[in-house]
Amino acid sequence: MSQERLQKLIANAGVTSRRKAEDLITQGRVRVNGRLITELGQKFTNQDHIEVDGVPIDRDPKVYILFYKPRGVISAVSDDKNRKVVTDFFTDIIDARIYPVGRLDYDTSGLLLLTNDGDLTNHLTHPRNQIEKVYVAKLSGIVQSKDLEALRHGIKLQNRITAPAKTQILSVDRRRQISIVRLTIHEGMNHQVKEMFNKVGYPVVKLKRERVGFLTLQGLNSGDWRFLQHEEVSALKKL
């Protein structure tokens, strides 16, 4: 049986991403066959007994889910305030320990992927891969194209300059003073979309993520989900 780096085995078991698995190792939270491992680079097999924080890792078959997250749900596997989390929708359906790929804010709805594949998670969230995420925002105020020029060139946000975004004004309601705008980005900073629109003077009233890469919400209503097809998983890994 082939050997793999310990952080990869942990990530493949769905515990966390590979980068965070490295942190777990260096923090002294991982044991293999009863031995504490704190140095990166050591290799083991799936036959070795691996524990994280004293809990044996699962070696479940890989699971890939496309979920239409409703508003009012936390993008996490648990919440210290006992609010509903995305994995609550799958507790009685899926035995594998899945987790969300990235996150959507509590009051943001839309497309969210869940999996136990750490390699895919790392691939989809790493900035170098520039995987597009498309949002539709309801904004306070009447937006004109020139107002969004800064977003198309990049603005200073969270001590860095954002990558150029694509914008499209879908509609405006002058009576209600509301605009609907589509925004396409490939980054994933916390609250990024809301902060981008705030920077140009248009607070977000409502936000929905409609697309990640080539995946859309077609055929799904809020709270619905489906398994990804094998061809979709393969295509995601090639993005």
UniProtKB/TrEMBL annotation:
<keyword id="KW-0413">Isomerase</keyword>
<dbReference type="InterPro" id="IPR002942">
    <property type="entry name" value="S4_RNA-bd"/>
</dbReference>
<dbReference type="InterPro" id="IPR018496">
    <property type="entry name" value="PsdUridine_synth_RsuA/RluB_CS"/>
</dbReference>
<dbReference type="InterPro" id="IPR036986">
    <property type="entry name" value="S4_RNA-bd_sf"/>
</dbReference>
<dbReference type="Pfam" id="PF01479">
    <property type="entry name" value="S4"/>
</dbReference>
<dbReference type="GO" id="GO:0000455">
    <property type="term" value="P:enzyme-directed rRNA pseudouridine synthesis"/>
</dbReference>
<keyword id="KW-0694">RNA-binding</keyword>
<dbReference type="InterPro" id="IPR006145">
    <property type="entry name" value="PsdUridine_synth_RsuA/RluA"/>
</dbReference>
<dbReference type="GO" id="GO:0003723">
    <property type="term" value="F:RNA binding"/>
</dbReference>
<dbReference type="InterPro" id="IPR020094">
    <property type="entry name" value="TruA/RsuA/RluB/E/F_N"/>
</dbReference>
<dbReference type="GO" id="GO:0005829">
    <property type="term" value="C:cytosol"/>
</dbReference>
<dbReference type="InterPro" id="IPR000748">
    <property type="entry name" value="PsdUridine_synth_RsuA/RluB/E/F"/>
</dbReference>
<dbReference type="Pfam" id="PF00849">
    <property type="entry name" value="PseudoU_synth_2"/>
</dbReference>
<comment type="similarity">
    <text>Belongs to the pseudouridine synthase RsuA family.</text>
</comment>
<feature type="domain" description="RNA-binding S4">
    <location>
        <begin position="4"/>
        <end position="61"/>
    </location>
</feature>
<dbReference type="InterPro" id="IPR042092">
    <property type="entry name" value="PsdUridine_s_RsuA/RluB/E/F_cat"/>
</dbReference>
<protein>
    <recommendedName>
        <fullName>Pseudouridine synthase</fullName>
        <ecNumber>5.4.99.-</ecNumber>
    </recommendedName>
</protein>
<dbReference type="GO" id="GO:0120159">
    <property type="term" value="F:rRNA pseudouridine synthase activity"/>
</dbReference>
<dbReference type="InterPro" id="IPR020103">
    <property type="entry name" value="PsdUridine_synth_cat_dom_sf"/>
</dbReference>
<dbReference type="InterPro" id="IPR050343">
    <property type="entry name" value="RsuA_PseudoU_synthase"/>
</dbReference>
